[in-house]
UniProtKB/TrEMBL annotation:
Keywords: Cell membrane, Ion channel, Ion transport, Membrane, Metal-binding, Sodium, Transmembrane, Transmembrane helix, Transport. GO terms for molecular function: fluoride channel activity; metal ion binding. GO terms for biological process: cellular detoxification of fluoride. One of its GO terms (cellular component) is plasma membrane. Na(+) is not transported, but it plays an essential structural role and its presence is essential for fluoride channel function. This is Fluoride-specific ion channel FluC. Fluoride-specific ion channel. Important for reducing fluoride concentration in the cell, thus reducing its toxicity. It catalyses: fluoride(in) = fluoride(out). It is a multi-pass membrane protein. The keyword Membrane applies. The keyword Cell membrane applies. The chain crosses the membrane at residues 35-57, 69-89, 101-121. It is found in: Cell membrane.
Length: 140
């Protein structure tokens, strides 16, 4: 038997997904490229999405009081922002344009940059969580 769906969580995923998809589509259109060049917009959204997802997972643990925030940020916003299908299509187009080196570099750089961004975001979020909040007047 399937678990009961919380309509509010579903709406949060939908809203985040719509926002992420609109942001990605706007960047893809603003930074259009030909198949024989580096697809900077897709590269940027995928790396940023990896960092945002790691940050959301690290800063919004499952015990967070609002499942809606996690649903909006994770599968919603990050799911809509990032795009594995476009990444794959760009690789195929690079190969069709006989840009094998570019395709290999793009694939390797995308995976490496995504992992690095996720690791950095996780480290920063974990360090922030380990440091108690000190009021601004006490920091000076």
């Amino acid at each position: 038997m399937l678990p009961r769906l919380d309509l509010r969580v579903l709406l949060a995923v939908f809203a985040g997904g719509a926002l992420g998809t609109l942001a990605r589509a706007g960047l893809e259109e603003a930074f259009a490229h030909d198949p024989a060049s580096w697809p900077w917009a897709t590269f940027a959204v995928n790396v940023a999405g990896a960092a945002l997802l790691a940050l959301a997972i690290t800063r919004l643990p499952s015990r967070h009081r609002s499942a809606h925030v996690r649903a909006f940020a994770g599968p919603g916003l990050c799911g809509g922002l990032t795009t594995f299908s476009t990444f794959q299509l760009e690789l195929v187009r690079m190969l069709d344009a006989d840009r094998v080196g570019l395709a290999l570099g793009y694939a390797a750089a995308s995976v490496a940059a995504g992992l690095a961004a996720a690791a950095l975001a996780t480290r920063l979020a974990s360090a922030r969580r380990a440091t108690p909040d000190v009021p601004a007047r006490e920091r000076a």
